[in-house]
Amino acid sequence: MRAFVGIDISDAQTLSALESVRRELGAPRGPRQDHVTLAFLGEVDGPAAEAAASALARVRFGAFDAQIAGLSAFPSPRRARVVWAGVRGGAAGVSGLARLVSEALRLGGSARLVPHVTVSRVKSGQAPPLGVLRAHRDTEFGVQRVSSFSLKRSDPDGARHVHTVLRTVEASP
pTM for this one? Predict the structure, then answer.
């Protein structure tokens, strides 16, 4: 199974604002599973997923707010493949939590995390959405209270992936 660790976006204002931008981008409609990825584990088997869940249960962190704001794209706006909304206020909290998760899972590595929520994917051959990116460069989508994170499996279902929670870790009181 493919697995990752993420923070779910559940704030109604944020979800509505992200959906509005998706309509501007012409992205497919349907149920969303918006989240900020903290770590991507890739393909893991059942015992490895259980070990990851146990390790994550020991992570301790305090709740914080994360402001979802601004649009950009990977690898760059002119060569956009993924359009994303960034994390501005609370980015240090998200990065710190990602570090704790990586340490618990013993992932190591020096990859620099860019805290973000994937908004849309740009199909090969499709023009980059430069106008939409410019228009929303500074848009404030909303604030998400980060009081938990989850280990999830990601299963393909046609053109989408379905995320199933394997373990949720709550913030320390």
Answer: 0.88
- Calculate what percentage of the chain has a pLDDT beyond 70: 95
Total domains present in the chain: 1
Known catalytic residues? 35, 116
Sign of CA dihedral 51, 57, 60, 61: positive
CATH of the domain at 116: 3.90.1140.10
CA gyration radius for the chain? 16
Angle of the 91-105 helix axis to the 46-56 helix axis, nearest 10: 130
Structural domain of residue 149, as residue ranges? 2-170
CA atoms within 13 A on the CB side of 12: 0
Instruction: Tell me whether residue 12 is exposed, middle or buried, using C-beta atoms within 10 angstroms of its C-beta: 0 to 12, 13 to 18, 19 or more.
Output: exposed
Is pLDDT at 137 greater than 60 in this prediction? yes
- What confidence tens digit (pLDDT) does each residue in 79-119 have? 999 999 999 989 999 999 999 999 999 876 545 678 899 99
Pair 80, 133: CB distance under 8 Å: yes
